[in-house]
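Section 3.1: Structural characterization of target chains.
Under the original work plan, the team committed to producing a structural model for every single-chain target entering the pipeline before any wet-lab resources were allocated. The record below documents one such target. The sequence was received from the expression subgroup and is listed exactly as submitted; it comprises 205 residues.
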Amino acid sequence: MSDRPKPNEQEVAVARIYARSAFDLAAAEGATESLEDELEELVKQLDREPALERFLSSPLVEIGERQQLLDRLFEGRMSEILLDTLQVMNRKGRSGLVRALAAAYRQELEDRTGRVTVSVRTAVPLTEALRQQLLEAAARFTGRRATLMETVDESLIGGMILLVGDRKVDSSVAKELRQLETQFLDRASQESQKAKTYFLESASE
């Protein structure tokens, strides 16, 4: 699995202006978390449809043409807050910053709610026990309520790739996370052995 394109710090900083406005509007409607979900779904759509992302980013496409496409694709299918935000970004020549908008909005939500996102990529799904230990370690490290974004990447040989917000992990938490990773590696090894045993048993039948 190839890494998805990620916005750089400058792009996120620019998108933060639009993210703040969107957050204020969503907060007035009690929809801050649902707007985050919408943005994550929109990013997933860009992953599935790279042509759409190229269209949104292309300097050769006229603003009016892009406005019509946005309305045609998303009117009635996403919240007015998000669609209006995309249209404002389009008028300002920033429609290619959808991924940056999603990242900036997540930062805004975390800053205002005292939450931190823990992104973890693993070869096999986490157990509930490991999931809870990971969240507790991250909460102690950051002093914030942690939420987990999990991605299963079967191309990983083993272990986990972990990002706690945008902060580095200090030595004490790193040690705890290494212990969690050891547990995870043991589980991944067990899963691999089960699959091998199943394959051998099936082949002998």
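The domain at 9-110 is CATH 1.10.520.20 (Peroxidase; domain 1).
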